[in-house]
UniProtKB/TrEMBL annotation:
InterPro entries in UniProt: DctP_fam (IPR018389), TRAP_DctP (IPR004682), TRAP_DctP_sf (IPR038404)
Claim: Oxidoreductase is one of the keywords in the record: no
A biological process term (GO) from this entry: transmembrane transport
Name of the gene this protein is made from: dctP
Lineage: superkingdom: Bacteria
PANTHER family: C4-DICARBOXYLATE-BINDING PROTEIN, PTHR33376
A Pfam family recorded for this sequence: DctP
Cellular-component GO terms for this entry: outer membrane-bounded periplasmic space
Keywords (A to Z) from UniProt: Signal
Protein name in UniProt: TRAP transporter substrate-binding protein DctP
Length: 320
């Protein structure tokens, strides 16, 4: 896919006052998800702060393409943004993947604190300087991921033989394997037909994903393992970002953080509402999960990927 160029001239030095810029922002979620509304608010506020000089166009449901393909376009300097996660960014800077590892953080507040930590900042700089990926912010917390299957899951042993959909990134794959299941890399949009066709036995997602995708039609158990607190990253091309006027850069970052934290609070409320909706649609919620057993099992993912030291370093900086 050929990326659209920003309207006006974009170059490495300070931009002239009359220059305008366009960011085409892509995400895989549907238009009914709280994140989509949050992205629209982010775009509106950036436009207002820059008097229309920086325009964000938001595309839902992967309208611009598959996430991995978009990230590669971003690395080449395209004026495209993508909602992604540290698991995928870990393909470039391995350590940052721990943010989406099993039981890494336990709350939104802990997730928001991560941006101030020296090790996290170092990894972000490495992403920008060596891989062309500028993290605008990662204050977008999508809630706890659980296992959604057609059988109750109470312990890692219950996942034996279960083919569980995960995104295609090492930390996701190894996390799900460590927790007892067989990971199957699959795009989010393929989950519903994948379940219908028995290509997978379940998925690990957040409650609002289930309602937005009507996955309760093809799944009947929600087991609250809460194995990953899903922290989302908003990334753009570092080359493109560096070509923006400084005040535009500031507006993009500050409004990303503000909209992200507001949306995270909305998600927290929506999660409980979505939980009640899946129950109303016939799903059984399994709450008596052996979380200690899952926590212990999850450590194997960090060990397998050589990330145990990174986990310990960041947790030390968090005083955990």
């Amino acid at each position: 896919m050929t990326a659209c160029a920003a309207t006006g001239l974009a170059f490495a030095g300070p931009a002239a006052a009359q220059d305008t810029f366009t960011l085409r922002f892509n995400h895989v979620l549907g238009p009914g998800e709280p994140f989509h509304e949050g992205f629209l608010k982010w775009a509106e506020r950036v436009g207002e702060r820059t008097n229309g000089g920086l325009k964000m166009e938001v595309f839902h449901s992967a309208q611009l393409g598959v996430e991995e393909d978009i990230i590669e376009q971003i690395r080449q300097g395209a004026n495209i943004g993508q909602n992604t996660d540290s698991a995928r960014l870990g393909n470039y800077v391995p350590g940052i993947a721990i943010i989406n590892g099993p039981y890494f953080v336990d709350s939104m507040e802990q997730a928001f604190e991560l941006a101030e930590l020296p090790t996290i900042q170092k990894w972000q700089q490495e992403l920008a300087d060596e891989h062309g990926l500028k993290v605008v912010c990662f204050d977008w917390v999508q809630g706890f991921r659980n296992f959604y299957t057609n059988k109750p899951i109470r312990s890692p042993e219950d996942l034996a033989g279960q083919r569980i959909r995960t995104p295609p990134a090492p930390i996701w794959q190894e996390s799900i394997r460590a927790l007892g299941a067989e990971p199957v890399a699959m795009a989010f949009g393929d989950v519903y037909p994948g379940l219908q066709q028995k290509a997978i036995d379940g998925a690990e997602l957040v409650y609002p994903n289930i309602t937005a995708g009507k996955l309760y039609e093809v799944l009947d158990h929600a087991s609250e393992t809460k194995h990953i607190l899903l922290v989302n990253f908003q990334v753009v091309s570092s080359q493109w970002f560096n070509g923006l006027p400084e005040d535009y850069q500031t507006a993009l970052v500050e409004e990303c953080r503000a909209a992200g934290q507001e949306t995270s609070a909305v998600i927290a409320e929506a999660t409980e509402k979505a939980k009640q909706e899946v129950i109303a649609n016939g799903m059984q919620v399994v709450e008596d999960v052996d979380l200690d057993a899952f926590r212990e099992a999850g450590n194997a993912a960090y060990e397998k990927l050589g990330l145990t030291e990174a986990v310990e370093q960041v947790r030390a900086e968090m005083n955990r």
